[in-house]
Amino acid sequence: MRQLLLGLSMGLGIVITQFSMAQSFRLVDQSELLYLHLDSGLVVVELNGIYAPNTVARIKALAGAGFYNGKMFYRVIDGFVAQGGANDEAPDPNYPPLPMEAKRMVAPTDAITLVPSPDLFAAFTGFKHGFAVGLDADKKRSWLLHCPGSLGMSRANEPDSATTDFYIVIGQAPRYLDGIMTVFGRVIWGMDKVQQIIRADVTGSGIIAADKPQTKIRWAAVGAALPKTQQLALMVEETQGKLFEEKLIDRLERPQAFFYEKPPRVLDVCQIPLRVKLAN
Amino acid sequence: MRQLLLGLSMGLGIVITQFSMAQSFRLVDQSELLYLHLDSGLVVVELNGIYAPNTVARIKALAGAGFYNGKMFYRVIDGFVAQGGANDEAPDPNYPPLPMEAKRMVAPTDAITLVPSPDLFAAFTGFKHGFAVGLDADKKRSWLLHCPGSLGMSRANEPDSATTDFYIVIGQAPRYLDGIMTVFGRVIWGMDKVQQIIRADVTGSGIIAADKPQTKIRWAAVGAALPKTQQLALMVEETQGKLFEEKLIDRLERPQAFFYEKPPRVLDVCQIPLRVKLAN
């Protein structure tokens, strides 16, 4: 028994097995990284200028201008989102409302690794360079998904109303928001720090009361604007190619002895962990 | 614009709308509550002796004997689970392996509020007194689901091998574990404290290295064993009845103006927030 408990099969042995599979990695360019230094620690976001070019340009401009420095996460609902930015300040005329960038046309040359599973919200799901995406092959449209760690732009009721504030998904994927919000990035480092963002009182509306503590963004910056010594050389798991396809099949088939009954052959695109590491 | 930002439609206005709907609540008996006082703060778990009677009896015995006091969360994977307990200590002969309690027979009198949506892992999903459940109506079996905040028993490869250690789901629902693990409770208070449990290094296996800090369970106790002054009178949203059914329909139909395009008529059973409040 003791041996069993110490061995691979200890507790939930699954993840250990999964993480021992081979992976390929790619280094993310510093110009595509947004560093958010929160009260709780450092968070690094990979931006996606392919799916959300105008929004990513805006985010880079805001970070470059120091806009987010000192701003708060003012609406934080455990299991849902942490929303930060200017809150109820008067809108800044420098940052007019952005067009919605929810869905983009895909070209025949667009490579998306499809998840071999049905999905209830999209005709297909898959990954494009580490980002979870939906795909409507008939309409040739693809969009970034709301998975844990996804960043999207807050907006009013009108689609083209986002300006400066954003949210980070901190709970079960709110997939019902897919396609009607501009998703523009994903947390690749410091998700534990995101999970430490101070929540609103669960008995309230989600807005943190003015007299209660809020988590501050001490500073935000694009990686390329930081001194080399402050940059993290982050390698993210490559989701194109044979190694990742094998990982998906492994998760679908669950050959490990731990699965004494095999689960349904279903993969939740938001429940496939992607590895990240520091280059040496 | 400023008014819009301050009004109901500010940011993601959805949750505010949802939370303004009427709800009914039930007071949870202190004998069905497990208090876990972590380094990060107080967490309260509602136990489910209907689905997992032997396991809940074991958990109550362990808590009553002070077994968990001083134990650590030693395997903590962001986005997956926080696992705590005895870790690699020699098995305690007082606590022999438990039978798997994954699926139970349902009787014709069992009331389950069905979620009006397809699901990929179960023929039906629903709620039974606040717990998310799966249902196979043909085989008359029901089981507790792995949603964020669910507690399950760690085990080795053999189904009947759980003894003392448990995990809390802290990320996207690992539904592939449904039916092959004993789920026995759900966090109803302090999920923000659970999210502050110290994670393992993301580049490792999930086990926290011996020389790194771990989050401790300072003490664990069943509510009924605590002095009245330490008990929390927790009211949980009642998932049987018309009010909750109306909430499900509202989430399915998304009548709010915020949804300028309506999402697919799909509800993820693990993405339906349930309210909790303190009785006065």
Please supply descriptive tags for the structure shown above.
280 residues; disordered N terminus; 5-stranded antiparallel sheet; 14% helix; alpha+beta; 8-stranded antiparallel beta barrel; Cyclophilin; 16 strands; 5 helices; homodimer
Description:
Chain A is α+β, with helices and mostly antiparallel strands and 280 residues long. Chain A has a single domain (4-278), classed as Beta Barrel (Cyclophilin). Chain A has helices at residues 2-6, 14-19, 53-64, 191-194, 242-253; strands spanning 25-27, 33-38, 41-47, 72-76, 81-85, 104-105, 113-114, 124-128, 131-136, 141-144, 150-153, 166-169, 183-189, 215-222, 234-237, 276-278. The longest helix of chain A is centred in the N-terminal third of the chain and has 12 residues, at 53-64. The relative contact order of chain A is 0.24. Chains A and B meet through helix 1, helix 2 and strand 16 of A and helix 1, helix 2 and strand 16 of B.
Q: SSE order of chain A, as H and E?
A: HHEEEHEEEEEEEEEEHEEHE
- Quaternary: homodimer
* CATH-defined superfamily of chain A: Cyclophilin-like
Total helical segments of chain A: 5
Please summarize the sheet with the most strands of chain A: 8 strands, antiparallel, barrel
Q: What is the percent of helical residues of chain A?
A: 10-25%
Provide the CATH architecture of chain A: Beta Barrel
The tally of strands of chain A reads: 16
Q: What structural class results from the helix and strand content of chain A?
A: alpha+beta
Rg over C-alpha atoms of chain A, rounded to the nearest angstrom: 20 Å
The CATH topology of chain A comes to Cyclophilin
Q: Name the largest protein-protein interface in this structure.
A: A-B, 80 and 80 residues
Tell me the span between the first and last alpha carbons of chain A.
39 Å
